[in-house]
Specification:
This protein has 129 residues and is of the alpha+beta class. It has helices at residues 3-8, 35-45, 84-88, 109-119; strands at 24-29, 50-55, 58-64, 104-106. The chain has one domain (3-114). The longest helix has 11 residues, at 35-45.
Length: 129
């Protein structure tokens, strides 16, 4: 690992291998309001590396995908021109220390479908099309 480049990192990040924050991305999802919305959520979890999280009424999508600019040394290859999302990331909120809490986690079609059958009135929606 290049010592000069390592000095640019916040102290907390220097021991993180493999750069956890650069191996996935996530986003808030609109709260489903009807059985069709939940049916759409099933599509997401049909894809490798995708997990849906439910925390209270809030839903989140996580996609496991290593950043293409993360080098073999687990350092950013474009650090000085990295995108705003990377620049504004706060290492004090690192999932390595405290993973985001979730009431439910769904990483498979069967798992989410079973939850929907038990918890969503009117599920499954009419799938004739």
């Amino acid at each position: 690992m290049n010592p000069l480049r390592l000095q640019l990192l916040p102290t907390k990040c220097q021991d993180c291998q493999p750069a956890l924050c650069c191996t996935y991305w996530g986003m808030n999802m609109l709260t489903p309001s009807c059985p069709e919305d939940y049916d759409d959520f099933l599509w997401y979890v049909l894809h490798q590396g995708v997990t849906l999280f439910k925390n209270g009424e809030d839903w989140y999508l996580k996609v496991d995908a290593r950043c293409e600019q993360l080098g073999k040394d687990d350092l950013c290859q474009i650090y000085d021109r990295r995108p705003r999302i990377c620049r504004e990331y706060d290492p004090q909120e690192c999932d390595k220390d405290a993973p985001a809490p979730a009431d439910q986690e769904f990483s498979s079609f069967d798992q989410l479908e079973q939850w929907c059958l038990e918890n969503v009135p009117g599920f499954p929606p009419n799938r004739e099309s």
